[in-house]
Specification:
The structure holds 2 protein chains of 2 kinds.
Chain A lengths: L1 H4 L1 H14 L16 H21 L7 H30 L8 H32 L7 H7 L22 H23 L8
Helix pairs in contact in A: 2-4, 3-4
Chain B lengths: L8 H29 L15 H33 L6 H23 L13 H23 L8 H20 L11 H36 L6 H15 L14 H13 L1 H15 L5 H4 L1 H24 L1 H7 L3 H31 L6 H36 L4 H7 L1 H31 L7 H8 L3
Helix pairs in contact in B: 1-2, 1-3, 1-13, 1-16, 2-3, 2-4, 2-6, 2-13, 3-4, 4-5, 5-6, 5-7, 6-7, 6-9, 6-13, 7-9, 8-11, 9-11, 11-13, 11-14, 13-14, 14-15, 14-16
The complex binds protoporphyrin IX containing FE (2 copies).
């Protein structure tokens, strides 16, 4: 069946799962130094989602392409599910005074969260619907070649013949990103781990 | 008629005046940086004594954000949109009127802020009359852009056009709602005031400063390397993700604050997701550069673009990290965040605008950039100065956060003293950046007055010069 294979179905399935999953996400206006579970959920969701995306678009090595087409949308959906369900979970266990808990307040907060998601989803759903109907979403790769010949002359470097070995320059920005990412992470971890036990944040 | 109708004149005039506001705005930034090292610098100096840090800082931020970067963005819109639409700008006259309007408005910003007239909300400091005029300014630019698209000959929309249209449609909503409907007496109060402020403060970055800059990169890369963009489809996914995911992240500026917990969590989750649109840009960047890396050796605009991509990566690596509660509890309120702000707005988007100006100006005024050597100097001095700038702020921020966490209020002044070396290094880095921009402006001035003729086929001529 065609509908069962569309990415829309996968995403809908993920959303349905969400509404069944989080029963008790409460929320509070108080907070203080809770866990960063969200970072972990987000990280996993991210990797799955991006890999899925590349798969759906066929932007993976030829050997993997059919797997990408086949499983990409489910990776994407799993990413989404983990992300939003993780959000509920983190909010639920992170709440400081859940036991003191004012159930009405928790319900209100959950409703607000769902309300926000609904408004947001509806808005972007509408945009997507209109964009699809007007046909702009089907604009293909041809336009990227048109831009090269739009009468705006490219720089002369665009016509320059590549010399052997120059491709290696790609490692310069790559290394720069790696070094920066390493030091930023190490710096933050160092600062967090070095905190004295008495520290009040 | 008072305003020129010559094709390209509005774009050119925006570029010319934007770089002047850049120099003024950065000078105020440097002044603020020096004040952090020598707080008593202007004490008892007539007139200057009114230029306290509290006044100088908003003058700096408003002039660099609205005078420099937005001015350069207007120029970029006026340059790229007609070329993407295959038709001239709808009205050069209106465009040139807008240039004048914008310059008067920026003067108004500078004067009122220096006089201490400040609404007290970040990036929304100017008084409400000026805000209304700001909306008028944006409306005039956007009208011109939309009408140009409406008259377009090229039916398909390239990714740059998508980013630019996205910005044009979302920015007014964000500005007007975020500035509390431009009313004189901010009706929304308390915590909600902060939430609305950061809906604006964050989304003006995400829906104005980001898409125009990223859109410009998508335009420049093919023009500089000769390769078409690697995957148009991926770029479209990136665009829609950006539009979709940026919206609810404003509360990540208020993490661990007294705003609803769920709102913070939503903001954090979406902040982590923001990595995806960034990765789409970087994947496309690498794909498009493939086989053309040698051009990096000879093209200063490409050097700026590649550096900007590195800084974009690290900005958006750092961003999700600092939105996490435990990281935020250390780095919030510290120099680390100031480093992040400059990584995005100087290292990424100002660098992209330098590349855009080097590319667009010769085509607008038919003259080659006057001095290739000065271009190189501009790049290296900016890069080295900026590296000193953001490294000192980033390390300084971690030291500051650790100091505060370790001794809370007991010895606050020690944490201030510990910042001194970092503040000095930042001021030195800032002076190098400003120096580089003065060379840049001089080069532009000489290009306009004494540059050799630029010809459309200097492309081929260039490859002869380079001996290939
Ligand atoms: C010569 C170069 C520059 C110097 C020396 C400089 C210096 C400064 C200083 C001292 C501050 C105040 C930080 C604080 O409150 O502790 C600041 C803030 C800021 N500057 Fe700059 N700046 C420069 C260039 C720029 C440029 C070109 C832009 C944007 C295009 C920019 C955007 C900002 C922003 C957005 C803030 C607010 C940061 C925050 O609150 O986190 N700066 N800058
Ligand atoms: C993945 C993308 C990004 C994320 C998740 C992110 C996240 C954050 C967070 C959490 C803060 C608040 C830090 C604090 O006060 O404790 C912040 C501050 C800031 N960000 Fe980003 N950021 C991202 C990209 C950008 C970009 C692209 C720009 C510029 C166009 C930008 C400009 C700023 C500025 C100016 C501030 C300082 C605001 C202030 O005055 O306090 N960020 N960012």
């Amino acid at each position: 069946m065609r509908w069962a294979r569309s990415p829309g179905t996968a995403v809908l399935a993920a959303l349905l799962g969400l509404f069944l999953l989080p029963g008790q996400a409460a929320a509070s206006h108080l907070s203080g130094g809770e866990s960063d579970l969200m970072g972990i959920y987000g990280g996993i969701a991210l990797v799955l989602g991006f890999a899925g995306l590349l798969g759906v678009l066929g932007l993976v090595p030829a050997r993997w392409r059919w797997r990408g087409y086949r499983w990409g949308r489910w990776l994407l959906a799993a990413g989404l599910l983990i992300l939003v369900a993780g959000g509920f979970h983190a909010a639920a266990i992170g709440t400081v005074e859940r036991q003191v808990g004012d159930a009405a307040f928790g319900r209100l907060a959950t409703q607000q969260l769902l309300g926000t998601l609904v408004v947001f989803g509806a808005f972007w759903g509408g945009v997507y619907f209109l964009a699809r109907r007007s046909g702009v979403l089907n604009m293909g790769e041809s336009v990227k070649y048109a831009v090269l010949r739009n009468g705006d002359p490219p720089e002369w470097t665009a016509f320059r013949a590549e010399r052997p070995g120059e491709q290696r320059l790609m490692w310069v920005p790559f290394a720069a990103m790696g070094i920066l990412a390493f030091f930023f992470t190490a710096g933050v971890l160092f600062a967090i781990l070095r905190l004295p036990p008495s520290a009040r944040l | 008629m008072m305003f020129s109708n010559v094709e390209g004149s509005a774009s050119r005039n925006f570029f010319y005046t934007a770089v002047i506001w850049m120099a003024i705005g950065m000078s105020f930034g440097l002044f603020a940086a020096v004040l952090l090292v020598v707080p008593d610098l202007v004490k008892n100096v007539p007139v200057l004594e009114y230029f306290t840090f509290g006044r100088v800082r908003p003058v700096h931020t408003n002039l660099v954000l609205f005078g420099w970067l937005s001015g350069a963005y207007f120029a970029t819109l006026f340059y790229m949109v007609p070329r993407l639409a295959g038709t001239p700008l709808w009205s050069e006259r209106l465009g040139n009127f807008t240039v004048l309007f914008y310059n008067l408005l920026m003067t108004g910003y500078a004067v009122t802020l220096l006089m201490g007239m400040n609404m007290g909300r970040e990036y929304a400091e100017s008084t409400w009359v000026l805000k209304i005029l700001t909306v008028v300014l944006f409306a005039l630019v956007f009208l011109n852009v939309l009408m140009t698209f409406a008259n377009r000959k090229e039916k398909e929309l390239y990714v740059t056009a998508w980013y630019m249209l996205g910005a044009v449609f979302t920015t007014p909503v964000i500005y007007i709602v975020g500035n509390q409907f431009l009313l004189p007496n901010n009706p929304i109060t308390g915590v909600n005031d902060a939430v609305v402020n950061w809906f604006y403060g964050h989304n003006i970055l995400g829906y104005w400063f980001t898409p125009i800059g990223v859109g410009a990169v998508y335009y420049l890369l093919p023009k500089l390397t000769g390769n078409p963009v690697w995957s148009h489809k991926l770029s479209m996914i990136g665009f829609w993700m950006l539009m979709f995911v940026y919206g609810p992240t404003g509360a990540h500026h208020l993490v661990n604050g007294p705003v609803p917990y769920w709102l913070q969590t939503v903001a954090i989750a979406f902040s982590v997701c923001l990595i995806i649109p960034v990765w789409t840009v970087l994947t496309n960047f690498y794909g498009t550069m493939n086989g053309r890396w040698g051009a990096l050796k000879e093209s200063v605009p490409l050097k700026f673009t590649v550096s900007a991509m590195v800084f974009y990566f690290i900005t958006c690596f750092q961003g999700p990290m600092q939105s996490l509660r435990s990281v935020s509890s250390i780095v919030h309120f510290t120099n680390w965040v100031v480093g992040h702000a400059h990584l995005a707005l100087v290292g990424t988007f100002s660098f992209i605008m330098f590349a855009t100006i080097y590319y667009a100006l010769p085509r607008l005024i038919n003259r080659e950039i006057w001095s290739a050597k000065l271009m190189d100097w501009h790049f290296w001095l900016s890069l080295i100065g900026f590296t000193l700038f953001f490294v000192s702020l980033t390390i300084g921020g971690l030291v500051q956060g650790s100091d505060w966490a370790a001794n809370q209020s007991a010895n606050f002044i020690a944490s201030v003293i510990n910042q001194r070396p970092f503040n000095i290094a930042r001021a030195v880095g800032g002076a190098m950046i400003l120096g580089a921009q003065l060379l840049f402006i001089f080069n532009i001035f000489k290009t306009a007055t004494a540059g050799r003729q630029f010809s459309a086929d200097s492309a081929e001529a260039g490859s002869i010069v380079a001996g290939v």
